Amino acid sequence: MERISLIALAGMMALGIATAQAATIPVRAILIGTPWWVWGLLALLAYNGFALSKPRSLPLWRLLIQPAIFMGWGTISLALGVRSGPILALDWLAFAAAGGALAWATRADPWSIDRARGLVRIPGGMLPLMRSLAIFAAKYALAVAAALHLGSPAGLRLLDMAVSGASAGYFALWAGQLVIAYRRQPIAAALIAPRKGATP
Description:
By secondary structure, the protein is an alpha+beta fold. It has helices spanning 2-22, 27-32, 36-51, 60-63, 65-82, 86-105, 127-147, 153-184, and strands at residues 56-59, 109-114, 119-122, 195-197.
């Protein structure tokens, strides 16, 4: 099932590359015109992704940073999109369901929970970093395309809502699975046998 995730990520990266190639304004001008908080968000995602690439034990809240960012980003997009009509909201909800289904289908990597110390052991891997950067690239590319009028405004809004909904749905289900598994473990228990889950 990991192949499904990689195919989805490749599609998002391709969207970002296509937008960059279609832009007639120099890349340097686009980068300079980007709000500072966008680069701060990119730095946070990269740092968190690299931290999750190695096997280690982390507190639960640390593992929920990445899901919280994309759920919040997706929810804001939904709130803004609803103003333009119900079609965008339905688009968001449909892709949120698809993202949730993808998270359910790809929950394969084991984690170990130490509730007594409030830690979760993750296996590590590059997928969290790749996933974060791919979603960021897709959102950034769509924002640039909209600002430069590189496509149909309605079509770009639909694509943006699709990416926002899919990422929010994926991380909402993943985070829910992790929190439920964490809560089910006795506080006094030592490090328990691995359970099935997905690296964030």
